[in-house]
Amino acid sequence: MTTALNGTAFVTKDEGTEADEQQEMVRKVAVSSFLGNFIEWFDYASYSYFATVIAVVFFSNSNHTVALLETFAVFALSFVLRPIGALFWGSFGDRHGRKAALSLSVLLMSGASFLIGCLPGYATIGIAAPALLLLLRMVQGFSASGEYAGAATFLGEYAPTKKRGIYCSLIPASTAIGLLCGSLMATVMTSVLSSEAMASWGWRVPFLLAGPLGLIVHYIRTQLADSPVYNRMTEALASAEKKTGKGQSPLRMLFTYHRRELLISFGASMLNAVGFYTVLTYLPNYLTETVNMDATQANTITTICLVLYVGLVFLMGHVSDRVGRKKMLIAACVAFIALTVPAFMILNTGLFLPVLLVELAMCATLTANDGTLSSYLTETFPTDVRFTGFAFSFNMANAIFGGTASFIATWLIYVSGSALAPAWYMVAIAAIALVAMIMSHENADKDLEHI
């Protein structure tokens, strides 16, 4: 818009320019959210897909199953600090801003991943090798615990109300793309490298890549601004604190006023934790170790499934904008209860085409949950505890049920002798999540400031 004063023309910012600037900020937030979450899950995928190699490099046990259990145990133990990290990063992000928390956490997360790629193995430094691996995994778990929740919260607060589902679905999509890249790398490397080369240096490559990627994401995030929703909330809290002379911490407010929302969110996240880690990271090992399927075939199937998964996550996010989050999440629970056991029966045939079709069906079912959960959790908590509530419920579920999924599945088969044991475990988790979702409220059509 142009105005004149004493014959001189001045150009002032009009609504179109402000809208363009807002759209550019949303784009930057989306890019940084995507990349940060991508790094985290590319690393987790690499650890899972290269688990058999890592077991050889870091553990001395001659029993391959025990060494594999030890590898999965380190994977599970790395989740111990996730609830603590969630409380730290969530409270930090609710008090000091989403930008500040995410900029710092990505440096710690990517740095720990990079150092894992530099670790010498058991043959070089003995018991110190698995000890250092565990230490770095726990540092990474602590720093990564705010990434998914923080990125979804940050993006959800910028997104238009009517499109919050599809915007927030970018977060699980970046998760799937991280897994896809990990699967592709595992498929290619196991095909072209010898077992000696894989054990010597091949497995290190994906972890070393996290270093430069983390620096790029950190730089992008330093250029961002916190959302208007968050800024208005902090202004209101600052005004209230001036009047009363005191303020409440996000942790105290969460556990005092939002216990019901926290419990329901934890229940909803349980199925996501077990389903995600079982379907997308455990099944390749299940097919090779239990079904005795060729490793290259198993990794190829996972890669194909992840391609479909990415597209379906966006579709499910879009559908949830139309029908609501609650209906989508209930449908996912019912589908897992009905389909999981028959699906595992077909997986045990070890035939490429049936296994592929079953994994595709399981991925499609998982996307109904995964493509909806990030927007659902963003909408469950008010702005002053949104990051903390999302991060704690999501990471507590992942610490207890997600990080242990591969270990528990392997252990259940070991003690029961039944290859269907992991399927019944998933059915039980889906039943609990169904109860939680029936108790939940629908907030898909609400402005985040009105929650």
UniProtKB/TrEMBL annotation:
The keyword Plastid does not apply. The chain crosses the membrane at residues 41-60, 72-92, 112-136, 166-189, 201-220, 262-283, 295-316, 328-345, 390-414, 420-439. Keywords: Cell membrane, Membrane, Symport, Transmembrane, Transmembrane helix, Transport. Gene3D superfamilies: MFS general substrate transporter like domains. One of its GO terms (cellular component) is plasma membrane. The keyword Membrane applies. One of its GO terms (molecular function) is symporter activity. It is found in: Cell membrane. PROSITE patterns: MFS. It holds the Pfam family Sugar_tr. May be a proton symporter involved in the uptake of osmolytes such as proline and glycine betaine. This is Putative proline/betaine transporter. It comes from Pseudoscardovia radai. The lineage of its organism: Bacteria, Bacillati, Actinomycetota, Actinomycetes, Bifidobacteriales.
